[in-house]
From TrEMBL, chain A:
One of its GO terms (molecular function) is protein-containing complex binding. GO terms for biological process: actin filament organization; cell motility; regulation of actin polymerization or depolymerization; trichome morphogenesis. It comes from the Eukaryota. Residues 45-79 form a coiled coil. It is found in: Cytoplasm, Cytoskeleton. Belongs to the BRK1 family. The lineage of its organism: Eukaryota, Viridiplantae, Streptophyta, Embryophyta, Tracheophyta. Keywords: Coiled coil, Cytoplasm, Cytoskeleton. Signal peptide: none annotated. This is Putative matrilin, coiled-coil trimerization domain, protein BRICK1. GO terms for cellular component: cytoskeleton; plasma membrane; SCAR complex.
UniProtKB/TrEMBL annotation, chain B:
This is Putative ABI family protein. It comes from Rosa chinensis. It comes from the Eukaryota. Residues 229-259 are annotated as: Disordered. Involved in regulation of actin and microtubule organization. Part of a WAVE complex that activates the Arp2/3 complex. Signal peptide: none annotated. Residues 229-240 have a biased composition (Low complexity).
Amino acid sequence: MARAGGITNAVNVGIAVQADWENREFISHISLNVRRLFDFLVQFEATTKSKLASLNEKLDTLERKLELLEVQVGTASANPSLFARDV
Amino acid sequence: MQKMLSSSLVSSAPKEASHNDELFMKQTVLFSENLNELKNLRKQLYSAAEYFEISYSKEDQKQFVVETLKDYVIKAVINTVDHLGSVAYKVDGFLDEKVSEVSEPELRLSCLEQRLRTCRDFSTQRGLFQHSFAINFPKHHKRYILPGGATTHTVGQSALIYHNAQGDLSGTNTATTRETSPTVVSEEYSLMHSPESSPGAFQFTRIGSKHEKRTVSPLRFPIPRCGSVKRSSTLNSSSSAKLRYPSEPRTRRSASLSLYNEGDRTKDIEVDSSKNKRFYKALLSMGKSRNDTALYKYLDKN
């Protein structure tokens, strides 16, 4: 009887260890996926920041060009004699 | 037909615009919902973790609680990945759309800049063109270089100078000019008194290679002539000087010119009178003998 009780205990311990290893494997998979999600979020943040920076640069360039054009048009409209000789 | 097409186009444009606006509103609503779910996912995960912890410690069926917890975690991860993917895709598409929208006004602006540059170049070229016309270039008169090295400014001036020279030669003694340049005077005299040339007209006819020997131009005639006059006045007698220049030395040149003109006039009058006489004679002979040979001869001569 003692032998049988010892064997069943050993089997239970083995089952518990296997279940513990399975749980550890599951947790490692979940943590790996969470890390992948984190990496994706970091990469997405970087790409989004770069795109936003390029967009901001383009908008700044457009704004400066528009200001320059406005100044040039204002200068040309203020001095119509520059274009009067073409008529 | 065109009106129908235009009306259909005009009516379809607002419909498409409203449809696009509806789609855009739906997408924005979905995007905001996804963002809110992502924000609430943290609280849900924390609450689920507390619940499973309590249930694992209280209930006897711990294996069932663990399996339920695993399923929940898997679903939560999958849900999070889906939400993050959709949000990232929408954000990426939104950014690309905005970049493309920015590129369009950039192209328009570059077009405007190019137009402005073209206008500026055109105005610059126009100004340079007008400025080039505003410059007064120096005018150079025609200059004829005579073989002797002397230059005359214009043809009329050279002819006038030769007339003056002829008048001087006809009005004055040739000996005085021969003192300065005998070869020139002889050539000029031969030119002016050649039988082929008509009286009063000058011809630029060369006589052999004697023109190359001419060293003094007609422009220089008055200056050596004055010197020659002085020399002649000193060398020759006073009577010969008085014959040549009856007036004062200051009016010497004008007197020679006027003498030359009067001589031409008298010659012309004599020629005309002789022509008229011959014409009248021809008319008389035609009336008498009715023979037109004399008239024809006269006409042939003239």
